[in-house]
Backbone:
């Protein structure tokens, strides 16, 4: 078990300004039923790793090693996954399977994981709010595990670098097709100010607007660097029509008190929270695996791509 990092600790020379990353993971995952009836959607596998591990590894590679996972009923597999499995480890050790042993040990040794229950599914803002006591009085990251981002440096690291410069909340954004804006929180930015490459100051935010009402096609994607004043802002945020507390609405409240920034990530994002996005991510990551890329590409090339549900 690694020691809990103290405020001044750094990893590989990285600044320790952000030490904690919150992973909301209490959702029911209804889009993937029946696969998610008895298994959390965060544990769906991309090649050979559960989706949530991609985000946890991104945090660790970004120098953030304290992970707070917001869970709910039926999510025990996530806790088991990030825990030491003594029986499995001694089995692999006895059989001399050192590569596999290293693979399962690496992630448990890289991070400290704490869990908090959301209790009721009252939205993303509420999921962040339940981490208030674990986060305490310091800036922190929020990672939505559905968004898997392939980037160098890692997406969260890019954002921390921006945070250290602008010294305010930073939200990851991406331009999306206009017909998709209603799936996202959307931001209006101030185009007159210069905050450096890919960085803008937010003028307004709106959660899942209709296409005609969207102030832009700059959509918030699943990475946030937040400051602890988000907690009182969320506490003061009214529930929406569906009874949920939206993080976007909490940020809108915060905007009346301090500047908030967005950063356009330099990388490739996959939304694995829907079936098509999940399938695209699976193919993308399989083709990036040295042990699978060539035979998998050869297999894909043999496929008759005209075969489909309508033929
Ligand atoms: C949430 C946020 C939304 C954001 C999106 C990114 O929506 O509420 O503002 O754009 O994540 O993935 P959800 O996808 O949980 O409905």
Residues:
């Amino acid at each position: 078990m690694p020691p809990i990092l103290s405020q001044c600790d750094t990893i590989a020379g990285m600044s320790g300004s952000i030490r904690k990353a919150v992973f909301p993971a209490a959702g029911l995952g209804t889009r993937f039923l029946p696969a998610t009836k008895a298994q959390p959607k965060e544990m769906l596998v991309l090649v050979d790793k559960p989706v949530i591990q991609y985000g946890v590894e991104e945090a660790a590679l970004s120098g953030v090693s304290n992970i707070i996972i917001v869970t709910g009923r039926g999510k025990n597999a996530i806790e088991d996954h990030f825990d030491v499995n003594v029986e499995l480890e001694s089995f692999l050790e006895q059989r001399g399977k050192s590569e596999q042993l290293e693979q399962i040990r690496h992630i448990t040794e890289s991070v400290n994981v704490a869990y908090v229950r959301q209790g009721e599914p009252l939205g993303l803002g509420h999921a962040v709010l339940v981490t208030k006591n674990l986060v305490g009085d310091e800036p922190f990251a929020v990672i939505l595990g559905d968004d898997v981002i392939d980037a160098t440096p890692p997406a969260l690291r890019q954002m921390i670098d921006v945070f250290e410069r602008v010294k305010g909340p930073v939200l990851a954004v991406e331009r999306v097709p206009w017909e998709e804006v209603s799936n996202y929180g959307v931001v209006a930015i101030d185009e007159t100010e210069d905050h450096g490459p890919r960085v803008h100051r937010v003028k307004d935010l709106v959660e899942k607007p209709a296409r005609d009402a969207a102030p832009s096609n700059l959509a918030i994607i699943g990475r946030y660097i937040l400051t602890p004043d988000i907690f009182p802002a969320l506490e003061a945020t009214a529930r929406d029509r569906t009874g949920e507390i939206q993080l976007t609405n909490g940020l809108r409240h915060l905007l009346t008190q301090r500047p908030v920034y967005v950063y356009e990530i330099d990388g490739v994002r996959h939304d694995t929270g829907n079936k098509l996005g999940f399938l695209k991510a699976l193919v993308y990551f399989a083709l990036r695996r040295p042990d699978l890329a060539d035979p998998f590409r050869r297999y894909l090339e043999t496929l008759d791509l005209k075969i489909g549900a309508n033929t």
Summary: The chain is about 30% helix and 20% strand.
